[in-house]
Amino acid sequence: MIRPVILISLLFNFSFLLQAANLVPSPGTGQSGMSVALPPPWTPMGSTSPTVLDCQNCYQLTSEGPSQAGCLWDDETVDLSGPLDITVKMMFGDDDAGADGICLVLAASPDCGMYGADIGAGRIANSVIFEFDTWDNGPGYGDLPNDHVSMNINGIMSTPLFGPSDVGNIEDGATHTVRFVWDGAGGFQIFLDGVLVLSGNYDFSSAIGGTEAFFGFTASTGGAWNNQIVCPEEDPLSPPDPASFIQADLSVCANEQNVPYAVDPVTGVTYQWTAPPGATVNGSGSSVTIDWGTEGGDVCVVLDNGCGMSAPVCVTVEVTPLPEVQVDPPGVICAQDMDLNGLVLNNLQPGEVFTFHPDEEAAKNGSPDLGNPPIVNTSGTYWIRIVAGDGCVQLIPVMVELEWLDLFVVQPAPLCAPGSLDLSFVDVIDQNGNQLTGFSYYPTQQDAEDQSNPLPGSTVSVSGSYWVRAETANGCWGVAEILVEFLAPPLIQVIPPPVQCAIDSFDLGTIDVQELTGLPPNAYTITFHNSAASAGSGMPVLDPPVVNQAGTYWVRATNLAGCFDTVSFPLTFLETPSVYLTGGGMLCEGEFAQLTFQFGGVPPYLVTYTNGIDTFSLSGSVNPLVAMHQVDTTTSFIILSFSDQTPPGCPPSSGGIATFQVTQKLQVSPAIKTCDMDQYIVTFSVSGGDSTTWVCQWWAGNLPG
To answer: End-to-end distance of the chain based on CA atoms, in angstroms?
Structure first.
C-alpha cells in the first residue's frame, strides 16, 4: 500500500514530491521540465497549482489553462520485488473536449516531463507509465478517438507496449477509482472503477533499472485543458486531535498579567484560544499569555488544520481576589515627616505585608523599594504594594505633596560690648526669598526642634549661638542659627614721631600704633584724622595719610563692630627760617647791616649765609638770631642765603634772600680855583655813588674832609 501523504497537518508519516515544469520550448508536441522537491507545506511552482482540495487528500495537478505540466511524487520508494496493490482517486475534468490526461508512473527518480501530448510524463527516463489519455493525438501516438489507457516506458509516449484500451468518456466531472495491481513477478493489472481495463506481463525492473522505484502521478494540458485531480489517499484528511496542556497556572490573582499557558506544538494547525470575560489572551500560537481580570473560568484551546477543528481542551482557572486595602489621602506632608509609614491603611488583613516603591513598575516587580522607613524627599505619586498570604498583590498609588520650610538668616553684624540685640530685628527668609514673621527663639538647635526652653524674650546681650523657629499654616517648621557677637573696643597708644625735616612730607601710616588689649591686627582697622571731631565721627579720613604740615593729628582704631578708640599725637617740622633787615636797604659802602633770623623750629639754631664770595656761620639758641654784617663789597647788590640746623639726614633748607643796595663813597677831585671880578669860584670834580642821591653842601672856610 502506498503510505499516507503528509499534508500541512503532518498527521501521516508520508509525503509526496511535487514536480512543476518550468516550461522551456523543445522539439515535438511537448516541453521538458525541471523536477523541484517541495517540502511541506507544499508550495505551488511552475505552471501548475498542485494544491490540496477540500481536505480529501486530493491534489489539483492542472487547472483550466493551456500548456501546463504538474507532477506529484511519493518521496519514498516502493519495492517491486514484492506485490503491490494501490488504489487512488482521479478526476479528469468535466469537459469532454478537454485534455490531456493523467499518468500513473513508476520511475528510477522523480521527474516532471513535457506538457501536451506527453501528459507530463514524456521523456522521464527509466520509467513505466500508465496513461489515462483524454485527447486523441492520432496514430503517431498510438491513440484512439475515445479516452483510453496504455502502458509506455522510458518517457516514450508514442509507442505503447500495452494498449490502447478504450475506457469511454472519463472527462465527465466524476471521481473515478483507479487500481494498480502488481504481482511482483511481472504481471500487472489496471482497474478503472472496478473494471479491468489493461493487463499484461512485463519486467518493470528492466526499464527502471532495479526493483526500487518512485511512485507518482503526472498530468498536462496543451491547446485544450481540464481541471485534473488525483487523490492518492483513500481516506480524507481528518480534523486534528485535541492538544494537551503542558503549562497552565490554575490559580491566579485578580488582575495578574502575562500568565503563561501552553499546549503541545503541532505543525500545520492554527490555535484558537478562549478565556473568561475580563481576561485577555496575548498571542496566537501553541504558547500564549493571559492578562487576568477579576473573574475565573475555563481557558480553552481548539486546533484547526483547515479540514476541521479538534475538540476543545480546557483548564479551569480560579481567580483569587486582591487585598482590598484603602489608603487615607495623606494631604500635605511636612519635609520633617517624610516617613510614609505614617499613612493610614484601612482594611489591612493579618498576614498582608506592604512595601513602598518609587513608581508603578517597581511596585509590580517588588523592587526597588523605598527602604524602611520609607523616606521620600519630593512631591509626586508613590506606590504601595500589598502582598496577601496567598501571594496576590494589590498596587495602590498615593499622591504625596511635600511641604518644607528652609530658613535663611541675614546674620547680624558684630556689636559693641557692652550692648544688646533684639533678635526680632534680624531678617529671616524662607527658601523662596519671602520674609517671615512670628518667630520663637531658643538657646540650642535641639530646643528649637523640640520647642523646649524658649528664651524669655527676644533681646540678648551675650555673644553666642541662638536659634529661631518658624512654622507654616500646615504646621511644617524650620529652624536656623543666629550668631551674635559683642566685641570690646580696642585700646591704642601712639609712639610720637620725631621732628621731621622742614622740606619733607610724612606718612602717618608709618608711626607706631600699639593695641594694648591684644587684639590681632585683622580684628581692627586704623585710620588717621586731622582733628578730634573727625576722629570721633570717623570722617573724613586722611587717605592717603601723607601730610607736610606740623600740628596735632589723631589716630582711630575701629573693630568689626564699629567700636573705636582715638589718640592724638604731635607732628613737628623744622620750619624754614625767615630773615629781615634793620637799618634800611640802602647802605653806604663800609656800613654794617643788621641781619635778623627768625626761626619756627626748635633750638639750637644754625645759620649759614654767603655774600656770594665768603660764607659765614651763626649759631645759638636765641630766637631770633642777630648778626651785623659789614657791607664793603664794591658790587651793587649783596645776596645772603642761609639754612637752619636740621636733624641727621635732612638736607639744608634753602632760606630767604636779602638784597642790599650799596652806594659807593664819593670821590672828589682837587678844586680848581678861578677868579671872577665879583667872586672866587672853586670847581670840584665828584664821582661814585648814585648821582640821583647827591647833595652838595658848602661851608665857609675850610671844606669838610
So the answer is: 196
